[in-house]
Recover the amino acids of this structure.
């Protein structure tokens, strides 16, 4: 049986785009996957870099310090962590105690209210939820050395000097599914099936899609993701950064490469740390994501810098931190204290974060504004 919100939208033979379907399946405030408690983390549904342990946040803190310095140490220095999930990255950045902390306004921007409700936990300096003019004011008023301050929000402030960062957000934004058919393009829409479930149907894609797919070198007849929402999100983020950077971390590849993966290998579902089922089965009961088509993402705004996550973390000094961890563990392994255990864990975290078959292969794209 279809959940009521989908049944309503599809009644009387109606059809919705794949992106509309994803929006309902993932983010409906009552029945969506994220409203029902879906989340990143060891106790959640999938493991992300911040959830591997505190090392990722310590290195992001270094990256933020570099940006703060190159902007001339602005106050406030606003970091908007979009798709903040339960707030794990924010906690690790706070513990790392970056040099920018006295000027830092860290906004945990999260669409899901149930995850925003988790932000206060273990986050000293959290000042609550901020929306509208209150949020704009927080992003504007100097802290005079009183930072760091953390606040939750459902959207970005109108303007900020600092950074918009997003780890594994873009793969989770609703996307269309399209393919070339000769000179035309088709997209998938979702309809109610006779058996009471859902079915996908091909229909004509909006104008312009065929030309862009052809230009991207996508072979005829192969379904690929069309991340229109991620492109829109990037444009809006760039408009709001007065000076600073937008930095996104995600899994992705050029569209033609995604097209080469057998059986829609770029489309993934997750539930309780396992792969989930067919994306049209059990809407709201599983996460549905797509590898980010990084060439499409840059059609309107080419990135200023593109690196693998492993490369970025090496540039930020992960190897020295690991060496240091090995030394501390070597000295104290016989009678390990908390510091020794942390040092050993750092070595393991670094392996996971730079794994060329896993998180290390993630793409980090940066756009600079006034830098
Ligand atoms: C895959 S999770 C990543 C969580 C976290 N960044 C991490 O790396 O562990 C994606 C998160 O983005 C949130 N999200 C989706 N669309 C959003 C939007 N437009 N604005 C803010 N958050 C959004 C989801 O609710 C979800 O918590």
């Amino acid at each position: 049986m279809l959940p009521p919100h989908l049944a309503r939208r599809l009644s009387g033979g109606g059809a919705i785009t794949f992106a509309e379907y994803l929006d309902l399946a993932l983010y409906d405030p009552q029945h969506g996957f994220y409203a029902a408690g879906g989340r990143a983390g060891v106790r959640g549904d999938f493991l992300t870099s911040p959830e591997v342990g505190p090392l990722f946040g310590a290195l992001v803190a270094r990256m933020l310090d570099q940006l703060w310095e190159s902007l001339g140490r602005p106050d406030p220095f606003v970091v908007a962590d979009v798709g903040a999930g339960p707030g794990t990255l924010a906690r690790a950045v706070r513990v790392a105690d970056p040099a920018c902390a006295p000027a830092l306004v860290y906004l945990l921007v999260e669409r899901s209210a149930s995850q925003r409700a988790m932000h206060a936990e273990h986050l000293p300096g959290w000042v609550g939820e901020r929306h509208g003019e209150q949020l704009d004011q927080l992003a504007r008023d100097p802290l005079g050395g009183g930072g760091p301050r953390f606040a939750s929000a459902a959207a970005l402030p109108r303007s900020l000097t600092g950074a918009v960062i997003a780890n594994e957000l873009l793969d989770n934004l609703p996307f269309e599914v399209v393919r070339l058919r000769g000179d035309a393009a088709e997209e998938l829409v979702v309809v109610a099936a006779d058996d009471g479930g859902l079915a996908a149907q091909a229909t004509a894609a909006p104008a312009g899609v065929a030309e862009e797919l052809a230009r991207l070198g996508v072979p005829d007849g192969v379904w690929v993701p069309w991340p229109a929402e991620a492109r829109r999100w990037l444009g809006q983020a760039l408009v709001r950064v007065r000076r600073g950077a937008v930095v996104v971390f995600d899994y992705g590849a050029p569209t033609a490469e995604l097209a080469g993966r057998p059986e829609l290998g770029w489309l993934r579902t997750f539930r309780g740390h396992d792969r989930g089922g067919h994306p049209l089965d059990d809407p709201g009961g599983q996460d549905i994501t797509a590898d980010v088509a990084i060439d499409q993402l840059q059609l309107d705004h080419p990135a200023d810098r593109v690196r693998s996550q492993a490369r970025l973390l090496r540039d930020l000094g992960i190897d020295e931190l690991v060496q240091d961890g090995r030394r501390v563990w070597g000295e104290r392994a016989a009678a390990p204290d908390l510091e020794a255990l942390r040092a050993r864990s750092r070595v393991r975290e670094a392996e996971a974060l730079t794994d060329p078959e896993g998180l290390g292969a993630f793409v980090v794209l940066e756009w600079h504004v006034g830098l």
Observations:
- The chain has a mean pLDDT of 95.
- Residues 34, 40, 48, 50-51, 82-85, 88, 109-112, 115, 167-169, 172-173 surround S-adenosylmethionine (CB under 6 Å).
- The longest strand covers residues 241-250.
